[in-house]
Amino acid sequence: MTDMTVSVAGVTMKNPLVAVSGSFGFGREYDEVFDISLLGGVSVKGLTLRPREGNPPPRVAETPAGCLNSVGLQNPGVEAFLRDELPFLRSKGVAVIANVSGGSPEEYGEMARLIGDAVELLEVNISCPNLNAHGVNFASSPESAAAVTEAVKKTARVPVSVKLSPNVTDIAPIARACQDAGADALSLINTLVGMRIDTETRRPVLRMNTGGLSGPAIFPVAVRCVWQAAAATGLPVIGMGGVSSGLDAAEMMMAGASAVGVGTVLFRDPYAPERILGDLNAWCEEHDVKRISELAGSVLAY
Questions:
Q1: What percent of the chain has pLDDT over 90?
Q2: DSSP letters along 15-30, please?
Q3: How far are the Cα atoms of 47, 105, 141 from residue 114, in angstroms, in the given order?
Q4: Strand 192-194 relative to strand 211-214: parallel, antiparallel, unpaired?
Q5: Could you report the per-residue pLDDT of 62-109, keeping only the tens digit for each?
């Protein structure tokens, strides 16, 4: 049997599969479908300092090979998460990853202070493209990405992973800026900015006009970004973006990921984590992979 254990910035997971933020809520609904303790980790619904209602509907739309969303980080706030949701996840024996967003570097730092060491890993979301008009995308430049990373590292009591955006000209200098500012790991990719129009009404299908594109359509972009960011920094990476199968997970790890996130596939197939893990394990045994961690960064690039 292949040893499926992986480590991300010193955080040990029983396997490399992580439920990504925004697709899994706080795990309660999916736990009614399958035992979520089989996952290596859970990145919870994106948290903000105070509760948010999110954007007005319609805010989710199906697209070929994926979906668009402009949910706008609807969540109960960090204090409600710590009080009402974290105990349930703790009972499941998974690595808990708190995904946090803010409107300023100081706000991110306050989020990290409040969370303290209650989770295994902080995932600093500087890249959500589907916020409302007051949202700020700090992943658009090395300087702003570094400013948030530095603010979080000043107060964080657990390792910090910075979640990066593909909506940039070159992801490598932004990844390096996060590393130089103290990031312990990287998470990527977040969604691509997309738009669809109803040809009968001539209105955008989303109330906020644009949204974040996720699903299999973005998988090649995700593989490319993971490869570039891992090569530029050497940091452990949680790779995500369109992963739908065990082979996708293996490919993402070859590109440089230490762990692999699954998200949009859960809407179509709630049992996907069981299937993906089973297929990944079978592939490893067929290819005589003794430790899954050996796959990370093993691509033989030309």
A1: 95
A2: SSEEEPTTTSTTSHHH
A3: 12, 15, 27
A4: antiparallel
A5: 999 999 999 999 999 999 999 999 999 999 999 999 999 998 999 999
- Does the CA dihedral 193-196-201-206 come out positive or negative? negative
Domains of the chain: 6-295 (3.20.20.70)
Look at residue 150 and give its three-state secondary structure.
helix
Positions marked active-site: 128
Is-cis flag, bond preceding 292, omega within 30? no
Asked whether the beta carbons of 92 and 31 are under 8 A apart, the reply is: yes
Q: What is the pTM of this model?
A: 0.96
Burial 41-67 (b: 16+ CB within 10 A, else e): bbbbbbbbbeebeebeebbebebeebb
- Cα distances (Å, whole numbers) of residue 98 to 124, 231, 249, 266, 292: 8, 26, 22, 19, 24
pLDDT confidence bin for 1, thresholds 50/70/90: confident
- CB burial readout 125-135, b (16+ within 10 A) else e: bbbbbbbeeee
